[in-house]
Design brief:
With 663 residues, this protein is of the alpha/beta class. The chain is built from 21 helices and 27 strands. The termini are far apart.
Length: 663
């Protein structure tokens, strides 16, 4: 390979098995490791079963239980047992409830510079913080990777972001990525991999880099990449894994498709206002507003430093009597280390509420804020209602801003701690050695054939028909720009327990936008044979949960008509046989109203040839022209009714019939 290579290009070159590295062309990448979590992993295991796989073919595959850890009835614990048995059956590591958030634990225990990682969680790119090539994707893509198949995506461009200077006191890694969101918003980095380089990297620990890489997803980026350098080696040494380190640096004269530069010395404390991670201003611009909650933790601020700095700020003080300071630790080992260094006691004494290690309130699984009250959170997303409260007001902040505001009861610039409390900015020195999370991770069973343990809520995957040639269907819902997967299918304690029961969870499809949608979809399916929906730009941003495609598909969704799509959501639609169509003329979006009836003729031929698709709006007596960006591989899957149907056709398999649980 020639010189002038970025870290990104080196990683892709080393894993490329199909295609060429031309931006926009589909490529296939060898996947070394996979990561699944329980909100998506149950479907992945059912998909592996439907494919007839006996044992996974990756170097390492790990199943984490971190999302659905509330056990308010039998559904979540039943799924945990199902996942544990599936791990033994297929040869997968198992991280049980309470071990912590997948991304942080994976980085500590399994992450290896130079390796590739695909995860059924959109924040899997966090592993790019240690020189890995890591992608979030839908569960079906991950199931195929576990079966030894390549991960397919369109070759991204590479945005090189040079970091220079040193961060001033009271500014930290969260402010760096919020600055990026201020510049690029939630879709400015679509079709790109963001690679950070420059002298400013010396300011960032491995976990600081994790914060930035994690929230690269919010930029719309395909993934984020950092080099593997001496800081990566230090991190792995603390984890007793320094033998896993390799150095992986960009060439001195590396070239990028686009470039940007951040002078860290100029940054201020930043905040993303409701209800988008891209709605970023300085804390000074919104300070003084009363708050109800400060929330510290999540995959977007998972490091020991993030909790330590919070403890140092509140040490010897009391949280404001109007504020709930919620501490959500990211791993079991982190809790041990907080106790060892005294930070746990400081947080409890100050009035913090300490929760179990897991995602928790980040995905609406507890810690919901009060109605119309401000919640400051160090989480990666603040989409409407994601917190579990429909009328929420969630702001995204650094741990410093969250802690300072918890003391004052209003949004507070943490730089004011010096005049308010006489507190100089605390300097963190990472302790060595640290408690490690070894024995609570269960390795794969030594022999396959363990029976899958199913509870009554675990249902077989629905069977779907192939794409038809003719449709006359209503536009059941019309939406605007940046519709998130949380709006397509709500997260939280109400819906996610049905993640392994597609008929049940489908009743929550588009619930955040229209509570009557599922009922109307059933009527449309009976009367017309299906429906479609219409959206603006960046449809299906956010989570990798393929339920946001599967549930509408179960309700009869034939196609989505949008101006543009987020990468993972677009791929998931194709994987399950829903046509992701785009307007040839974006102005045609304005010519469709909700409940208009649209007619498609000769659809299979048009999809197969890639020619523009002509659609008649029978309600308005107008003509629309649509197109798609599917590769030949994806076209074959859509025509077959989805990837699983295509796999069965290729391998001449009968649809898998699951055995119902004994009564």
């Amino acid at each position: 390979m020639a010189n002038h290579q970025s870290v990104t290009h080196k990683l892709i070159h080393d894993h490329l098995v199909e295609g060429d590295m031309t931006p926009g062309q589909e490529i296939g990448l060898r996947i070394d490791q996979t990561l699944t979590q329980d909100a998506t992993g149950t479907l992945v295991m059912l998909e592996l079963e439907a494919m007839g796989l006996e044992r996974v073919k990756t170097e390492v595959s790990v199943q984490y239980v971190d999302h659905n850890v509330l056990q308010t009835d039998f559904r979540n614990p039943d799924d945990h047992l199902f996942l544990q048995s599936a791990c033994q059956h297929f040869g997968i590591w198992y991280s049980r409830p309470g071990n912590g958030v997948s991304h942080a634990v994976h980085m500590e225990r399994f992450g290896r510079p130079g390796r590739s990682l695909a995860g059924s969680d959109s924040h899997t790119p966090a592993a790019g913080s240690m020189g890995m090539l890591s992608f979030g994707s839908g569960g079906l893509d991950i199931a195929f990777a576990m079966a030894g198949e390549p991960l397919y995506l369109k070759m991204p461009k590479v945005l090189g972001v040079e970091l220079v200077g040193a961060m001033p006191p009271w500014v930290s890694a969260k402010d760096v990525v919020l600055e990026m969101l201020k510049r690029y918003n939630v879709k400015g980095c679509r079709g790109m991999i963001v690679e950070y380089h420059g002298a400013g990297l010396a300011q960032l620990s491995a976990m600081d880099r994790h914060v930035i890489a994690n929230m690269g997803t919010e930029l719309g980026a395909t993934t984020t990449v950092f080099p593997s350098d001496q800081e990566t080696l230090r991190f792995l040494r603390v984890q007793s894994r320094e033998s896993d380190w390799i150095e992986l640096l960009a060439d001195a004269d590396a070239s990028y498709d686009a470039v940007d530069r951040i002078d860290l010395a100029t940054l201020q404390p930043m905040i993303a206002c409701p209800s988008s991670p891209g709605n970023v201003v300085t804390v000074r611009e919104v300070e003084g507003k009363p708050i109800y909650q400060s929330y510290v933790g999540s995959s977007a601020n998972p490091g020991l430093r993030d909790f330590w700095i919070t403890a140092e700020i509140v040490k010897g003080r009391r949280v404001h009597d109007r504020v709930s300071l919620d501490v959500n630790p990211t791993s079991r080992a982190l809790i041990e280390n907080l106790a060892k260094i005294g930070a746990f006691q400081q947080l409890i004494a100050a009035g913090a509420r300490f929760h179990q290690a897991g995602c928790n309130g980040c995905i609406g699984m507890g810690q919901a804020p009060a109605t119309n009250q401000i919640s400051l959170r160090t989480v990666p997303r603040n989409f409407p209602g994601r917190s579990g409260t429909k009328e929420d007001r969630v702001y995204l902040v650094s741990p410093e801003t969250a802690a300072a505001s918890a003391l004052t009861g209003v949004i507070t610039d943490p730089r004011d701690c010096e005049k308010l409390f006489g507190l100089a900015y605390p300097t963190f020195v990472e302790p060595e050695p640290q408690a490690l999370n070894h024995d609570v991770l269960a390795p794969p069973a030594s022999s396959p054939g363990v029976l899958l343990q199913r509870g009554p809520n675990i249902k077989a995957l629905p069977q779907f028909d192939e794409l038809q040639n003719f449709y006359v269907v209503p536009a059941l819902l019309k939406m605007g720009d940046n519709v998130s997967t949380d709006e397509i299918l709500v997260a939280g304690a109400k819906a996610l327990p049905f993640r392994s029961n597609i008929p049940a969870i489908s009743q929550y499809a588009f619930f955040a936008l229209d509570e009557s949608f599922a009922t109307r979809a059933h009527v449309a399916k009976e009367r017309y044979g299906g429906h479609l929906v219409v959206a603006g730009d960046n449809y299906a941003q956010g989570s990798s949960r393929e339920h946001a495609a599967l549930a509408p598909r179960y309700l009869g969704q034939v196609a989505v008509l949008a101006k543009s799509y987020a990468r993972i959501g677009w791929q998931n639609l194709a994987n399950f046989g829903i046509l992701p169509l785009e307007f040839v003329d974006p102005a045609d979006y304005d010519g469709i109203a909700q409940d208009d009836v649209l007619a498609f003729d000769d659809l299979r031929l048009a999809v197969a040839t890639g020619e523009p698709i002509t659609v008649r709006n029978q309600t308005k007596q107008t003509i629309l022209r649509l197109t798609h960006r599917l590769s030949e591989r994806q076209v074959r899957a859509v025509l077959a009714g989805g990837l699983i149907n295509q796999f069965r056709l290729q391998h001449l398999l009968e649809p898998h019939q699951t055995t119902p649980p004994e009564s």
